[in-house]
Amino acid sequence: MSRPILLDLFCGAGGAAMGYHRAGFDVVGVDIKPQPRYPFKFIQYDLSNADLEFDLDLAAFDAIHASPPCQAYSSATTSLHAHKHPRMIEPIRELMQGLTDGDGCPLMPCVIENVERAPLNGPILCGSMFGLMTDRYELRRHRRFEAIHWEWPTLMPPCAHGQRPIVAGVYGGGGEDRTKAKRAGSRGGFTPDVATRRALMGMPWATQHEIGEAIPPAYTEWIGARLLAALRADDVVMISTMSGFLDWVEAGPKEGRFRRTPPLDSSEDFPADEATAWAREARP
């Protein structure tokens, strides 16, 4: 059976992409920087411009995930420097909410991810929810997610803090053992060696720097299963709104809603026009 195609914006080294792939998606990544270790199809493109204009037909994809830069929202960025970083969540949200057909029905489900303090309307996922730990360390790495054109499940997995004696931190640009270890129950801060960080994150292919900017594949594997359920719903399309209310629109599956494509077999870079053509192959 062919797999639906997910567009991974601001993809980095592919932590989110690997989770979606395990859930059942084929993935195309887009990032401003070269990503030689990105495990799937990749397009290098600058998405930092305010109007988000780029030569890729978003309607050719079945789902979209975006992890815009987090520095403007992160507690690690001082208030004196936050204004120097782009605030991309608002334009990304507006772009995704506008992905509808002529009748106003959504073209695909979308997800935005960022740090815990980011202005997103949705739940926080934690490494402890998914058992991301070693014999000694546990990973929390709280990240917030917003669903657009679909809904989160009513019951979310709870955090399970305190299962290991040390909370391990995975920080952007963090070196090894950069701060004193803190015990479970605190906010963490201890940075273990790179091999341990790779094991905790589930990203054995990534470098130290790439791990610090990624989310664990376990998060998006869990989300991806829910995205697939939204895509495969034959009778109801779920639309989430800014206020958090849900409108249930009675509609059968529209043309192109369940697009399919051959499985991925390469991670080489390729231009945007080829990506769009590849994603359109299975359209009716």
Structural features, described:
By secondary structure, the chain is an alpha/beta fold. It has one domain (5-280): Rossmann fold (3-Layer(aba) Sandwich), CATH 3.40.50. 19% of the residues lie in helices and 17% in strands. The protein contains 6 helices and 11 strands. It has helices at 15-23, 89-97, 194-201, 208-212, 217-231, 272-280, and strands at 5-9, 26-31, 41-44, 63-66, 110-115, 124-125, 137-139, 143-148, 166-168, 236-240, 246-250. It has a 7-stranded mixed β-sheet, sandwiched between helices. Helix 1 packs across helix 5. The two termini are 16 Å apart. The model is unreliable at 174-186 and 234-268 (pLDDT under 50).
Largest sheet: 7 strands, mixed
Please tell me the total number of domains.
Answer: 1
Distance between the first and last residues' Cα: 16 Å
Structural class: alpha/beta
Shape: globular
> In CATH terms, what is the architecture?
3-Layer(aba) Sandwich
Number of strands: 11
Helix content: 10-25%
Which stretches are low in confidence, meaning pLDDT under 50 for 5 or more residues running? 174-186, 234-268
Major β-sheet strand ordering: 3-2-1-4-5-8-6
Measured by DSSP, the beta-strand proportion falls in 15-25%
Radius of gyration: 19 Å
CATH fold node name: Rossmann fold
What is the number of helical segments per DSSP (H or I, 4+ residues)? 6
What is the N-to-C order of secondary-structure elements (H for helix, E for strand)? EHEEEHEEEEEHHHEEH
Mean pLDDT: 76
